[in-house]
# Entry
Amino acid sequence: MSTDVDKPERSQDDSATLLLGFLDYYRSTVTRKVRGLSEEELRSSRLPSGWSPLQLLKHLVYMERRWLVWGFLAEPLSDPLGDSDDDGHWQVRPEDSAAGLLAALHEGGDRTRAIVRRSTLTDVARVGGRFQDDDVQPPPTLAWTLCYVLQEYARHCGHLDIACELADGSTGE
# Structure
């Protein structure tokens, strides 16, 4: 579980490699930031919205799984919304740990890479999991799905930046 993944080279012109490279970069950024926080800081919030860094980490694990496994592959998941309570607020259980969630985050990244290796970016998500025949919008392509997941990581890395700065004053990438 490396924490020192660089951004993809600027000369990279293969779209799948570029998207996967940025996803790896953001996963490593999340890992580095989470590892820099104490257990107390991981489980507490300094923000009016009330989420903790550990809740955000769990959300990222479930978000990627929802979009790629349950969504793109239409494989059943026992609890696709396991990161949220009945009101949609992020939640963690006492037994959830940073180490366990970071391992799941990187396992999810490995799964995403495997999906991309055996697919094309123009492949459309299967119907039957997250997406149904009667949905108003058609299922997304793999390219759209990867871009969506990437923007979730980027957005939440910014949120984690704020939480870390409030916790210990650290700033930056």
